[in-house]
Specification:
Layout: E1 30-35, H1 45-52, H2 60-72, H3 79-96, E2 103-107, H4 114-123, E3 128-133, H5 140-156, E4 164-167, H6 175-194, E5 202-209, H7 213-217, H8 230-245, E6 256-261, H9 276-282, E7 290-294, H10 303-320, E8 323-326, H11 334-349
Parallel strand pairs: 1-2, 1-3, 3-4, 5-6, 5-7, 7-8
Helix pairs in contact: 1-2, 3-11, 4-5, 6-11, 9-10
Length: about 400
């Protein structure tokens, strides 16, 4: 069996040609759940942040400026607990469907690490692996960096030429991912209207992680003009437009916009704007009496949601004198879990692209990333799995 390719590194035979969609069935024998990771105690915080910022030479004094977010919650990020719940939910749904597919879990930045997950899967006799990353959108940090870490983990585990690793497509517009956000927005708007706030006085802010504008411009295939924010911005706008167009109450009346949060770069480096807190501060001058904050860029209630939205954005709304509701993330919502397993079965069966579910004109996204997709402007191209080189 050929398990490595100059065209698509570490790819299965079905994906090795580099075609954008793999429409040939693949007998995967294990699923690897890949996530960001997070500290699980005060002593873990700085070592974790060193992992996150590896190669950037950031001193511990500056890392401590971010560390206080984690220290506020006892040094524990909720993300590992959420991934344990998601892994259990996936295993239950996989078993319900009668699929023989064990699930392994590994993180990019904290234990259990990805290389440990691949090593355990291989030790258990599994060779044809499918990776499911807990990230829905195109950007370096949310797509290519996962693919780089898959390649690095396989190499560090000594499994080059021993296993293959494909990756589930980005799922930003899969109905299973979008449905929990739709429900959350509808519930929040209905409650605010029931409480006497007119629909036109309710502003909906779809919030996602800000990224450097240079990385945003490089997100998505290079042969498409994605507009402001590259594919990253286009994907979020498309999903937000879909949600608002299908809102059962207040449709066509409620003002909304895409906002950004959690920027961490130096002030001299341009990042995507506007900032969620700045927008909230200006809402009263636009006639708003309430704001619905939708964490559209996030799959679960991890630190960026708990601190940047539930703490800072809520404080901004209080200072602005307007009511604020933050809607849920998908977490382990049944539609999300079922949708993820649908995506796994899509690859097992080799479902034709024309039959794959998606709710925006941008989907379905590619199984195999296109050349140059999501380049890091600072680092350039490093070895990455599940995509055409570079």
């Amino acid at each position: 069996m050929t398990v490595s390719s100059d065209t698509v590194p570490f790819a299965s035979a079905a994906a090795a040609s580099g075609a954008p969609f793999v429409e040939t069935p693949v007998a995967y024998d294990a699923l690897v759940l890949a996530s960001f990771g997070g500290p699980e105690g005060q002593d873990d915080v700085i070592p974790f942040l060193r992992n996150v910022t590896r190669g950037r030479g950031i001193p511990d004094e500056r890392l401590e400026e971010v560390a206080h977010h984690y220290r506020h919650f006892g040094g524990v990020s909720p993300i590992n607990g959420q991934n344990r719940e998601l892994k259990a939910a996936l295993e239950a749904e996989i078993a319900r469907r009668g699929l023989d597919l064990p699930v392994y879990w590994g993180n990019r930045n904290w234990g259990p690490y990805l290389d440990e997950a691949f090593a355990q899967a291989a030790a258990d006799g599994h060779r044809t692996l499918l990776v499911l990353a807990t990230s829905a959108y195109s950007s370096y940090s949310s797509d290519r960096q996962y693919r780089e870490d898959i390649a690095r983990a396989i190499t560090e585990a000594g499994l080059d030429q021993k296993v293959t690793a494909d990756k589930v497509r980005l799922f930003f517009d899969h109905p299973g991912f979008v449905a929990p956000f739709q429900e959350g927005v509808a519930d929040a708007v209905q409650q605010l209207i029931a409480d006497g706030i007119a629909a036109e006085k309710i502003h909906v802010l779809f919030s996602t992680h800000s990224i450097p504008t240079g990385d945003a411009e490089r997100s998505g295939p290079r042969d498409v003009d994605w507009g402001e924010g590259g594919a990253y911005g286009a994907q979020h706008r498309a999903v937000a437009e879909y949600i608002m167009a299908n809102l059962p109450v207040g449709g066509g009346v409620l003002p909304w916009e895409l906002v950004f949060q959690s920027r961490s770069g130096p002030p001299t480096q341009p990042w995507l704007e506007p900032d969620v807190n700045d927008v909230i501060a200006g809402l009263p001058s636009r006639g708003a009496q309430a704001v619905v904050i939708v964490p559209l860029g996030f799959v679960s209630d991890h630190m960026e949601v708990l601190w940047d939205l539930d703490t800072e954005a809520m404080q901004a709304a209080e200072e602005a004198g307007i009511r604020a509701v933050r809607t849920p993330t998908p977490g382990i919502h049944p539609s999300f879990v079922a949708g993820l397993v649908d995506l796994v079965e899509e690859r097992i069966s080799g479902m034709p692209a024309a039959e794959r579910p998606h709710v925006t004109p941008l989907g379905p996204w590619y199984d195999v990333s296109r050349p140059g997709d999501c380049e890091n402007a600072r680092l350039g191209f490093r070895p990455a799995a599940a995509g055409l080189v570079p």
